Amino acid sequence: MDEQRKKPSPPQGDAAASGQRLAPQLRMMVKTFWYSPGRNKLFLLGTAVCAVVALTAFLQIKLNAWNKPFYDALSLKDFLEFLHQLAVFGVIAGALLALNVAQAWLREMSKLKLRDGLTRDLFDQWLVPRRAFRLSGAGEIGQNPDQRIHEDARHLVDLSTDLGIGLLQSMLLLACFITVLWTVSEGVTFSIAGLSFVLPGYMVWLALIYAGIASFASWRVGRPLISLNAERYAREADFRFSLVRVNVRTEAISIYGGEEDEKDYLNREFDQVLSMMRRLVSGITRLTWVTAGYGWFATVAPFIVAAPGYFAGDMSLGGLMMAVGAFNQVQQALRWFVDNFSLIADWRATLLRVASFRLALLEMDKLGDETGRIELVPTADDRLVFDHAGLASPAGCTRLSEKHAVINPAERVLIIGKQRGGKTSLFGAIAGLWPWGCGRILLPPAQTMMFVSHQDYIPPGTLRGALAYPAEPAQFTSEEYMAALERTKLAHLSPDLDRDARWERELTPEDQHKLAFARLLLHKPRWIMLDEAIDHLDEEARALVLDIFGQELADAAIVNIGQADTRRGFFTRVLHLIEDPEGERLPPYAGTPVPVQPAKLEAPAG
């Protein structure tokens, strides 16, 4: 089945999510790290970062104080004092260099540990049994989980660490240098129209006013960047998915000569990305007028502010340079918000993407809380019974044509449904993946059942492990493995039984299908549930599988949920999935905003 993707209509889920309140999302992420196994290591790293930043701030105060004797020595042409101050500078600068290196190491290690904790937490939440399956049908929030777990989580960790350390450093510098700036400017006398007065710490007040105006302007101009970044990441994820899709289907595309169509499709997806980037360029350009203008004026601002004291004779040249240095440090601390606003907008957008994804994972267990449940009843009876079972889905309700259907051992039953008519939902309901609906399904013992979907699972590891799955490889002998491979025309794989490889990439789709049936030959289950697993086989492979079902697995009940029987005589009974207009409908997931027309993603058929 080819993938079909409908373009979502506004509002976009992630863009809308960017308007959510920040505090609950941030609180959830902080709790995630607080309860993570690596909490103690993160706490030690955080303590070390605080200590290094504090010591750096202390030495920067010493370096600023060094300005006064150094420039005074220059103004007095005191050569010996000049050499002495150079030596003092060497000691302070050497210590600051060592602290800068330590801070860089601690920053990168903090990123490593934070990413370790966040990514493993997302693994744990995503791969809770049945959650990933339910998430895939939850609308836009379920698209591209790989993007959220890989790129968004990495970006969030990088931004959080850099911004967090930068904010801590700015706060300590502000606390330290405001005192210095107050001290050097508290005794300056102003004379205006014959009146003399003293404004204690006037440079501090001017620095606060100057930075406050710039910060407010940055916030007003840069605020739209938050939603723009959120939507950009959503469009980037769509584009990445499209590239992966084309890469997976290169053979089919080439056979049908579809390169031009795919190129047009990729161009349209890329145009969406470029459109968002253009809007971001405009937003960043407007913000740069504020931040760059602030930065250029800050070059002369401290001299202008300190000029009254210097020209009035209340400051020496060294005192002037010390005041300028202190003013610059205060400005650097106060302008942290201005300099980092675009990064803060990026951080918030990324935080909301990761946090909304994690929240959606937690809420998957509550999906359809108000919808009825199909009662799964494990029994010791060797039969499968559908007792008034109905399947609720967002599209409606479906049920079997027979309200009470009993399937006995060794029966060969075909269950036919329309395209998108609930076939996969029925398969999932029998497997315990799709709980929504009504009625009961009475199941034979679980250890006697095996499920084969149209795209069967091949676990990572050796081929022997893939064949034995979910049992341990030692449960079967090498002779049994080789016999199963030979029977399914995979004998050429026998020498590779113990080779560790990514078999879903190395094997052709046809061989992957045959591997699933070789696994059945090893396990010999009494009940085999198929989800269109034989419908897409070629004639030769289908004949081989049906021959296996008629001989080695003749005692097994075969239930194929799929399309019409193209091989008359194999299935002894046919049931039909029909719509139930009076049945219950499953409401769509509403925990995170979703588009009006949610994009539908379907796994590539093997």
Task: Map the helices and strands.
Layout: H1 13-17, H2 22-34, H3 39-76, H4 79-126, H5 131-135, H6 145-185, E1 189-192, E2 195-198, H7 202-222, H8 225-248, H9 250-255, H10 259-311, H11 317-334, H12 336-339, H13 341-363, E3 375-378, E4 384-393, E5 396-400, E6 404-407, E7 412-416, H14 423-431, E8 437-443, E9 449-452, E10 461-462, H15 463-468, H16 478-487, E11 500-501, H17 503-506, H18 509-523, E12 527-531, H19 539-550, E13 557-562, E14 573-579
Parallel strand pairs: 3-8, 7-13, 7-14, 9-12, 12-13
Antiparallel strand pairs: 1-2, 4-5, 4-6, 4-8, 5-14, 10-11
Describe the structure.
The model is unreliable at 1-19 and 592-606 (pLDDT under 50). It contains 19 helices and 14 strands. The strands form three sheets. Strands 3, 4, 5, 6, 7, 8, 9, 12, 13 and 14 form a ten-stranded mixed sheet that branches. Strands 1-2 form a two-stranded antiparallel ribbon. Strand 12, helix 19 and strand 13 (557-562) form a beta-alpha-beta unit. It has helices at 13-17, 22-34, 39-76, 79-126, 131-135, 145-185, 202-222, 225-248, 250-255, 259-311, 317-334, 336-339, 341-363, 423-431, 463-468, 478-487, 503-506, 509-523, 539-550, and strands at 189-192, 195-198, 375-378, 384-393, 396-400, 404-407, 412-416, 437-443, 449-452, 461-462, 500-501, 527-531, 557-562, 573-579. The chain is 59% helix and 11% strand. It is α/β, with parallel strands linked by helices and 606 residues long. It has two domains: 22-365, ABC transporter transmembrane region fold, CATH 1.20.1560.10; 375-579, P-loop containing nucleotide triphosphate hydrolases (Rossmann fold). 35% of the residues are buried.
